Amino acid sequence: MRRDEATGNWSIQGEERASLFGSDEDIMTKIPTQAQSIVEGSGGTLVVSELKPIPDLDYLQELLAIQQQGPRAIGFFGTRNMGFMHQQLIEILSYAMIITQNHIFTSGASGTNAAVIRGALRAEKPELLTVILPQSLKRQPPESQELLSKVKNLIEKPYNDHLPLIEASRLCNRDILSHVQQVICFAFHDSKLLMETCQEAKSLRKIVTLFYLD
To answer: Where would I find the H helices in 30-164?
Structure first.
């Protein structure tokens, strides 16, 4: 740290500056795995990155496009594995979509779907929320059943109860895509089924807004 005698200002010089802040090669962004992103209650310490990238403005432009042509049918998809803060943000987004007269379609799993349903129910416009289950209601976890009991437009698929959940979910996602114009998805890079769903939505010329949680 050197002081300029003329101006009285302090500045960091030469090697001292590099040692304080590190070289460009030392600054690296570390992307966590899906498991590392969820450390609630584990007591573990996770350093995600020292430099956070600027959010992609394309996401915001796509979301604004929802309102430019009036209310739309929007499909919400996403991972079950997410922290409390992400769920709160999704609830707010879902609530905002409903009060602006958009119709939301989603499924009944925990995580993203549950957050979407909670936000939509807060808007008190039950006719603008449709939940399509991959199987029958009885196949859903007890905590999900309690939330789903508050949904007016609930579509069950008991004829898929004999299928593995992953296959039933794939069929359910395709059904939701057939009803919507816009897709909003929250996923990890290794969320295989969600990535597949988003790719299928793009091939059907739907507007796709994909948020990566990692």
So the answer is: 57-68, 84-99, 112-122, 142-148
- Does residue 202 form part of some domain? yes
Question: What range defines the domain where residue 184 resides?
Answer: 57-212
Return the CATH number at 188.
3.40.50.450
pLDDT in tens, 137-151: 999 888 889 999 999
For 176, the enclosing helix (H) or strand (E) is helix 165-177
Q: Is residue 182 part of a domain?
A: yes
User: Does a structural domain hold residue 140?
Assistant: yes
Q: How confident is the model at residue 214 (pLDDT cuts 50, 70, 90)?
A: confident
Q: Per residue in 9-41, pLDDT tens?
A: 554 444 444 444 444 444 344 444 454 444 444
Q: How many CA atoms lie within 13 A of 168 on its CB side?
A: 20
- Report if residue 10 sits inside a domain: no
Could you give the count of Cα atoms lying within 13 Å of 99 in the half-sphere of its Cβ? 11
Token readout for 66 is 């929802």
Indicate the number of domains in the chain: 1
pLDDT digits (tens, 9 = 90+) for 72-109: 899 999 999 888 889 999 999 999 999 999 999 999 98
